[in-house]
Model the fold of this input.
Amino acid sequence: FWLKRSWHAQVGLGRRIEARAGAERGARQRERERAMGAYKYLEEFWRKKQSDVFRYLARLRTWEFRQLPAVHRCSRPTRPDKARKVGYKAKQGYIVYRVRIRRGDRKTRVAKGIVYGKPKHQGINKNKATRNLRNIAEERAGRKIASLRVLNSYWVAQDAKHKWYEIVMVDPYHNAIRNDPRINWICKPVMKHRELRGLTSAGRKARGLYNKGKRATKLRPSSRAAYKRHNLMRLRRWR
Done:
């Protein structure tokens, strides 16, 4: 009898301890949700793009951006949460540029829309770009400010005619960058114009390198290298 009673007491005590631990875990979870950081609130705000507040701010932003040059420097990131995700730090050596890109297909640049050639080359309006618009924005910023290195970029606004991207750029000659072991890899000479060689995130996406498995058999290490590997005739015997 006493053994049975002690066993029941132990089981009841274990259940009470488990219930208390579960309640404490729930309280900690609720506390974490209440203590959600400012960057998390910003991230949630930028997800709700159809809300009245966001649409009003987007209308103001696009009007302001239309008055500015196609490539201009920002005093600070429009989206600090997103900028930090792609590598930006609020310290010396990091610069943010905003780039305006024309939306839609690429248009053939010929005078008056006239191509003096064969009918197959007379298309003007429906040329599809190989690269995405974010990669094109990175290239324009990299060409405009050639002494800086392009780290990454993100979308900020768009209207019916344009899209705006902010490009996070790094000064490779600034001591704050050269002495930081987390970012001084970008100071190496081989990192010049990463955006022109498809090495940034947007460039890798345009090259199809975010695909894996059977979708990527003809993409790695690059489409040209894969074509060469599959089509080059190799005569291994000396003739």
About this structure: Helices lie at 2-34, 38-47, 52-66, 80-85, 133-144, 175-178, 201-206, 223-231. The mean pLDDT is 91. DSSP finds eight helices and four strands in the chain. The CA atoms of residues 218 and 224 lie 9 Å apart.
